Every structure is written in structure tokens, then in C-alpha cells.
Amino acid sequence: MNFLAHFFLSGDDPGLMAGNFLADFISNREVNELPAEVQRGIVLHRQIDHYTDSHAAVRQSIQRLYPRHRKYAPVLVDVYYDYFLTHNWAEYTTEDFSSFRQKAYAALHLYLPSMSAIMQKRVQGMVEADWLRSYGVYEGLEYTFMRMKSRTSMPEHLEGAVETLKVFREEMDEEFRWFFPEVLGFVRNVFPATHDTTRDTTHDTTHD
Length: 208
Fold this sequence. Notes:
It is built from 13 helices and no strands. By secondary structure, the protein is an all-alpha fold. The two termini are 21 Å apart. The model is unreliable at 202-208 (pLDDT under 50).
């Protein structure tokens, strides 16, 4: 899962949101220096990642992308699923998307003093460019993948990532709709009472 989905799965808890964001950028030693509520968000992030990696719908999406994008297929699926969350937003929550983004950015600002200088700079760039909105439009995804290519050892495997999304949009939207209600149900069980604005879609799926 990418940033938007991790924020969403944190519910209304700023500490969980901040931890869910920081989890991929912080060492185990640094975790112990963070506020307890942010540490809980890191734990939640890792539980979500474990659940996601083992889910049949996600594995199916990755397999679909592997012939063209190889080892970066899981990374692309993470970003694509944020795209699908944006376009299916009203199915999962009654909260306005713009209001949610501001809430997520406010959570990061709240815990900015607990972050390293590098992470503070990353957060500032994220907020200024409104990354969470950009995942829902092709131009924003192009920019996201361009940033990724500058940090990877085999950027050629990220070429054509937006075109791949367009080709498999219908199939992957169906896989996302299979997966997301189930990961929501998982998080409700692990961290109950954090999703008052989400719609209960745990029984909408037709997959086993």
C-alpha cells in the first residue's frame, strides 16, 4: 500500500497517521525514540504490509505487471491502488477527499518535531505538492514515477508505468475492489474504533 491508503487505514488518529507514513523511512533503533502513539502507527503499517503481501488480489495484480516491470511490479501496484482508492473514494467513506488530505497533512505537521531534518523536508515537499491528490490523476502519477526512477538501480523497468495502468485499468480496479474492503476489515479488527467515517464494505466482495 502507498501513502494514501496507509493514511486512510489509520482512521482519525493523528499518531497512527504519522507512524503509518514514517514506517518505511525509519530504522528500528529510531522507532524507540518516537512518541508511543507514532510507534503504534508503525506497528499498524507493518501489519498492513504483511496482510497486503499475502492477499490473493494483490498477488494477482503483481503477476499481471511482472512481465513488463519485473521487480518493481509490487511498487507499482502500491501506487496504482492509491489511484483506485481516489476514484472509488465514496464507496469507502463519507468524508470529503479534500478534508481528508488536510487532516493527513495536519497529522504530519503535528509530529514534525519528532522527525529527522530529512523527513521534515520530505513532508514539506509532500504537502506543498499535494502528493495525495496527485495519485488520482495520470499527470501526478507520471511525476511520481519520474521521482522513483531517479532513485532506482533499474529505472528502465519503470518505463511506461502509466500506460500499463491504462491497459489494465479495468482488471486492476476489480482486484482493488476485492482487496480493499478486506484490508479495511482486517484493520478494524486489529485497531478497532478508528474508522468512524468509513463505510462497512466487508460484506460487499464476491471473492472468497
